[in-house]
Amino acid sequence: METEQNRMNEKEEIIYNSIRKNPYISQQELADILDLSRPTVANLISGLIKKGRILGKAYILNEARQIICIGGANVDRKFYMKEEAQLGTSNPVRSTQSAGGVARNVAENLGRLGKEVILLTACGTDADWDAIEKASNTYMNLDYVTAFPSISTGSYTAVLEQDGNLLVALADMEAYEHLTPDVLSKQEALLSRSSAIVADLNCPKETLEYLTHFAEVSQIPLVLVPVSSPKMVRLPEALEKVSWIICNRDESETKFGMRIETEADWHQAVQNWLDAGVQNVIVTNGKLGAMAGSATEGIIHEPAIVVENIQDVTGAGDAFCSAVIYAWLEGRSLHEILQAGSVNAARTLESEYTVRQNLSTSQLQKDLEELIK
């Protein structure tokens, strides 16, 4: 007997009937039918599951293959200085808390851009994970996250100066040491159906070695996103099956034991990555922009977009990586890929949020038209 609680509204009826007609319909196709965003459709489908109208998620098995993001999912705590910082004493600040982490941030950006995304991470069974889950589940599938009662969910604490630049950051990433090859091997069927695997260097080295081997055997594209210079030691030894590395100048200097002081040095760093076997590489260099290289399109440079009003630098690098991955999966040229990354990073710098709240495919296109002359 139908009750008020499980009665469907008009949008839910459209989704329900569409799935009845085509059990393999994608969430994006449903979004197009309803003229809604894909995350909104995902929420409506979740409601239908709770009402018992849909038994599980089997209908999405034949959807466009998901992007799987592996690595950090933290609580980000940010403290904004109200005055110039003074050591050894109390400083007045205002503070915010949000969901962060490189892999999670990339996943949210891609989810907002209409991609089907699954996040694989390790977390505690604590209030911090509850907050991350609440902020994230609209944009990504969290069903495959591994929880460990004995650990704390990852956290990142940043102190930002009045101009938005980072003064100091504290990162508790011990949770991700639990992202072992054994944990990921239990998801091999899922990994083998993905359109791409994106892993950050919060993962242990042996896990990244495992993913490199898996990408080779399964012919799944692998994207590696370094987190910081110290974590470059976690890079896999063999890079020939890595589809993309998206890193910055410092990380490249650490990898190759070199200084990047001139454009020729920068160009050489990109070439070094290609010579190491990486199929595509981007090396960002702050206000100088980004330089990218591939075996098929050579090495090119994209100037940085000048941002007059920087609100927060946190998340800009993840925004850059996400738009690069999005544009690449859309089949764009290397030049267009660089432009997409630069634009999304610039707009994120103008936002107080780690992932800008107005991001969508249409907004990214509008931003490209406005910022790229």
Task: Give a quick summary of the entry.
The chain has helices at 10-21, 27-34, 38-50, 102-112, 127-136, 181-185, 188-192, 205-218, 249-256, 263-275, 316-329, 334-349, 361-371; strands at 67-70, 74-81, 93-100, 117-120, 122-123, 146-147, 155-160, 166-172, 196-200, 222-225, 244-248, 280-284, 290-294, 298-302. It has 373 residues and is an alpha/beta fold.
Mind explaining what this structure looks like?
With 373 residues, the protein is of the alpha/beta class. The chain has helices at 10-21, 27-34, 38-50, 102-112, 127-136, 181-185, 188-192, 205-218, 249-256, 263-275, 316-329, 334-349, 361-371; strands at 67-70, 74-81, 93-100, 117-120, 122-123, 146-147, 155-160, 166-172, 196-200, 222-225, 244-248, 280-284, 290-294, 298-302. It is globular. 40% of the residues are buried. Residues 60-64 have low confidence and may be disordered.
Features:
373 residues, alpha/beta, eight-stranded mixed β-sheet, four-stranded mixed β-sheet, 13 helices, globular
Radius of gyration: 21 Å
Q: What are the secondary-structure elements, in order, as H or E?
A: HHHEEEHEEHEEEHHEHEEHHEEEHHH
Give the terminus-to-terminus CA distance: 60 Å
Largest sheet: 8 strands, mixed
Q: In which range does the helix fraction lie?
A: 25-40%
Numbering strands along the chain, what is their spatial order in the largest sheet?
A: 4-1-9-10-11-12-13-14
Q: Structural class, judged by helices and strands? A: alpha/beta
Task: Please give the count of helices.
Answer: 13
Strand content: 15-25%
Extract low-pLDDT stretches.
60-64
The averaged pLDDT comes out at 90
Number of strands: 14
> What global shape is seen?
globular
